[in-house]
Amino acid sequence: MLKFCSFTAGTLDTINWTLLKKNHPQIGYKTNMSDQKRVFLVDAFALIFRGYYAFIKNPQINSKGLDTSAIMGFMNSLLDVIKREKPDHLAVCFDKGGSVDRVEMFEAYKANRDETPEAIKIAVPYIQEILKAMHIPIMVKAGFEADDVIGTLSKQAEKEGYKTFMVTPDKDFAQLVSDNIFMYKPRFGGGYDIWGVPEVQEKFGVTDPLQVIDFLGMMGDSADNIPGLPGVGEKTAKKFLTTYGTMENLLANTHELKGKMREKVEAAKDLGLLSKKLATIMLDVPVTFNAKDFELDQPDMPKVTELFNELEFRNLLKNFTKTFAIDTAEETGASKNGSEEKIKATPKKETLIPEGQFDLFAAPGTGSVSEEEIASGFKTISTTNHFYQHIDSPFARTLLLRNLMKQTAVCFDTETTGLKALEVELIGIAFSYETGKGYYVSFPEDQAETQRILEDFRPFFESEIEKIGHNLKYDIKVLSTYKMPVKGKLFDTMIAHYLINPDMRHNMDVLAETYLNYQPISIAELIGKKGKNQLSMRSVPLKEQTEYAVEDADITFQLKQLFTGELENGNVTKLFNDIELPLVSVLTAMEIEGINVNTDFLKELSVALTADIDRLEKSIYEQAGEEFNIASPKQLGIVLFEKMELVKKPKKTKTGQYATGEDILSYLAKEHDIIKDIQEYRQYKKLQSTYVDALPNEVNPKTGRIHTQYMQAVAATGRLSSNNPNLQNIPIRTARGREVRKAFVPRDENHVLLAADYSQIELRIIAALSEEENMINAFKNGEDIHASTAAKVFNVPLNEVTRDQRSNAKTVNFGIVYGVSAFGLSNQTDLSRSEAKELIDTYYETYPKLKAYMSAQVDFAREHGYVETVLNRRRYLKDINSRNAVVRNGAERNAVNAPIQGSAADIIKLAMINIQKRFEKEGFRSRMLLQVHDELVFDTHKDELEIIKPIIKYEMEHAFKMSVPLDVEVGIGENWLEAH
DNA sequence: CTAACGACATA
DNA sequence: GTATGTCGTTAGC
């Protein structure tokens, strides 16, 4: 068999040169400029870690629950190198047992690194298996780090006349760079940078790459725990290097330094020399560069295929086979270059649309795969044939509408001037109803004209045609400000994916990359990063607006086709169609409605709070004997525990600060009166900053009301969440906090606020699901469940239950829902650890079926990899079979909690949909305003009060039938607090 | 200017 | 022990 390296130099030159020019016009290198032989040494762990963290927000979990992120990341990088470079010599270097020498020198060396993530640990054996199958040599030397192995091999290869490329993102390697040794730094998402001597000189401000060692020694490296010189960072290190050249020279001339810096550096001379040693890559590892061993050979295709299949690396396998296929083709002379081969695989269609010509009926072409795609692994707009048309004349709009009306399903996506749906202006709407094809209708700044153009499309929006979108709630809200209703069935790809995998993120960019292997134009590229200097979409040229907007609609349209099947696979189609999609409309209506807030009242409240805060501040300063920032946990910790020495052994947080949380302070309250003041101060500060002062700023100037946003695809259990502002965490527990609720008032004097609460819904659900008769009967008899539990657990008559007993029973009842542990319970109550354990044991004896149910949930999760709610909403628990007990226990608590919290969420969502339906059917003037997990709040017209009250109660109590009755308490008042 | 952290508000 | 979101401080870019 021939090898990769058997191509003619000419062909390779051409390909690589084009790639390089495309990605790095500033770099003059090619990896194979001369006839010199090339060897690539790959730093395995660095690439594995990098790959793992690249996927951290979106871990790659295969159907067996294996986290393959690290393997995938590494293989992508490796394959990318092979594909680009066709190296003739290549080896992959691993660490084994860390560096014996360095640890001898400095005990803390790499000591404070976090525990290696599980996914990385399991990755190594897989990767080594794959490498073996690919016939790629693996270099490991026990007691040495990969750095040292690579360093030694590079220098040996250089002597033998090779050009060496060290494939690693780790800047430490810069010290090895020479005329024949280069760093080859893979970039995220494909591409790479090559650092030769000039690059190293520039990046580190050195004349000789060896000075990189001095540089690292001076500034230190927290990842490797190289201490460095105190007070010396990047800037100072560069300055020193320019002046002194080396660490030794600096240390010999410290008398030239000034002030504090001189003191610090002089005191740390030994540390400096040690740091330099630690940063030095060893060049005398007992390994030998034997060119023959490193020659790249043909992979064992069946074996690699088997491994990739096992890991479910479908795209990677395709990619791998493709790389390999080109090579054989070239060897046999069947094809001269890669792109020709690709074109054959996906022939171009005949339909060519002349630039600028208006053609609504054109079929999209199919693209060839370009070098850029090979580079990043993702398709992009420039590698994909597409037909995106800007629509800007009345005639074109007429034609577009005519075509839209012929469809059964159309995807649309609005472009606007910002993120607040109810305050933005419409800039454009993209439509797509066919893969690779779409249209962009743009709107002028003149709002009257915008309204007129939009009216052209009213027949479409009001039609029964299915509307596809990504986060449709946003688009519908924007259109509502132009009085344009959106009717017909909806399909929201964001919500579809939320049901397919609730633990993932659902931005369209991620979905496009994951499901379509396609990287969309990034919004940041178009209008800049958010925050400062971000441009409006209006400032983007229409041509680019069209490409960006229609691409989104096109992708969304394609995702819908895929997700229809995925929903079916997850058995959540019904949940999607019957609950989540109808809920989109309900939430849209609630958000548009908003709630009335008495800002004058809040202003008064703020004044009162300020007075109290000032008083407490003075008192605290006096008792502490100094002024400091009480809001800074860091400063507060020092005052309490170093200056005042309130306690012998203070608790520390994970970052080494003194812990000053509420639980610690309550415990300390008996030690000193200052604690009480601090607790009060904290409470009032929180109230003022988060609620009293913040809420008035959230009032929409047009409506005079507060419009929260409900996030429907965030909480992994199926709950909603609320933000901008969060109205699901308005205070209620403390007297002072409760005042804030008085600010939430009815829309006018003809209305009152109505609040309807499920009583103990989660406990009722767990009672019903577990079929625990003892608990079910207590609910059926309308007993106080916590008192009833106390009576049973402490074996006393119901009417003799003490307050403490009830309180402890209540804590256990809640704990059960969260997945109790004795440790957690004893923290929450004044019980000791063993008392807590005893209480839990008795509890399980009292309610034996509860225990059985919980175990059954865990078993189910272990077997199927997920748990589900009463409406089949799934939560996947990848860690349920983890060997790490802490991680596994966490997953087990989720297995118990998710179905309960999630079923409660399902039930209130059902109730909301049914209530909204009846409101619309009967034409009530009352409105549903807020949802707070187990509570709904309404603006109720006084005339409708008596009709609506029983309707709400009935719909909530009968939303879902269980063996336990649901109970809803309804309250009415002139503000939210009164309504409770 | 941004991100991480600690603290704390709710169900 | 579950699920969230927001604020002020602080460290790092």
Automatic annotation (TrEMBL):
Residues 37-297 form the 5'-3' exonuclease domain. Residues 388-568 form the 3'-5' exonuclease domain. PROSITE patterns: DNA_POLYMERASE_A (PS00447). One of its GO terms (molecular function) is 5'-3' exonuclease activity. The keyword Transferase applies. The keyword Hydrolase applies. Residues 737-944 form the DNA-directed DNA polymerase family A palm domain. Its EC number is 2.7.7.7. It comes from the Bacteria. CDD domains: DNA_pol_A_pol_I_C, DNA_polA_I_Ecoli_like_exo, H3TH_53EXO, PIN_53EXO. It is an enzyme of class 2 (transferase). It catalyses: DNA(n) + a 2'-deoxyribonucleoside 5'-triphosphate = DNA(n+1) + diphosphate. InterPro entries: 3'-5'_exonuclease_dom, 5-3_exonucl_a-hlix_arch_N, 5-3_exonuclease, 5-3_exonuclease_C_sf, DNA-dir_DNA_pol_A_CS, DNA-dir_DNA_pol_A_palm_dom, DNA/RNA_pol_sf, DNA_polI_H3TH. Keywords: DNA damage, DNA repair, DNA replication, DNA-binding, DNA-directed DNA polymerase, Exonuclease, Hydrolase, Nuclease, Nucleotidyltransferase, Transferase. It holds the Pfam family DNA_pol_A. GO terms for biological process: DNA-templated DNA replication; double-strand break repair. In addition to polymerase activity, this DNA polymerase exhibits 3'-5' and 5'-3' exonuclease activity. Belongs to the DNA polymerase type-A family. This is DNA polymerase I. It comes from Polaribacter irgensii 23-P. The lineage of its organism: Bacteria, Pseudomonadati, Bacteroidota, Flavobacteriia, Flavobacteriales.
